[in-house]
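Hey team,

Sharing the Late embryogenesis abundant protein LEA-2 subgroup domain-containing protein run so nobody has to redo it. Sequence (212 residues) first:
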Amino acid sequence: MPPYPNYYAAARPSSSSSSSAVASCLVALLFLLLAAGGAAAALFLLYRPQAPAIAVTAVQLPAFATANGTVAFTFQQLASVRNPNRSPLAHYDSSLHVAYAGGEVGRMFIPAGQIAGGRTQYMATSFTVPAFAVSAASAQQPVTISVPASGPSPAVSAMVQHEQQQAMEVESLLRVKGKVTVLKVFTHHVEAAKVCRIGVSPADGRVLGFRC
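Structure output:
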């Protein structure tokens, strides 16, 4: 006589049925993981955070003074900042620096703000650069610079060579920092910078041209 009735033996699950169920669960889990990974990759490509694009469109020195081998001036710069992201860009801790002969001579911090997704914002900055000494040797050298066409959105540039014109060269550095919130959940910090070399007449402060 068997140790248990025959109907119990008929009710016992087979090992092949259990293996099939486990395999089906693994396949379903793998499919879900692949689908989630594909969705995450698509969202990343669609909403991938990008740094803002900066273009300097105008530079002026409306006030300029020289005395005893030093110069002082008011520095004005107009730049466009484009947010290439779909989400708004909240910028903060941004600044504009002016340097001469490798040393900083002035700076200005730009107020915080927000640029809508896919939009462009113009930043007009103006501040006074205190007097600093000018090297006589650097003011004697001719410069070759690229002068953007007039207007807020130049499309072409003209090369102008000042063969006999004395010029001093200063540099400007516009740095824009901010953050982009993707899908209202993930925050990503972005930063962009634009350096421009500016040729200035040491006699009257006229901007002879600039290139960035």
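The chain has a mean pLDDT of 81.

Ping me if you want the raw files.
A.
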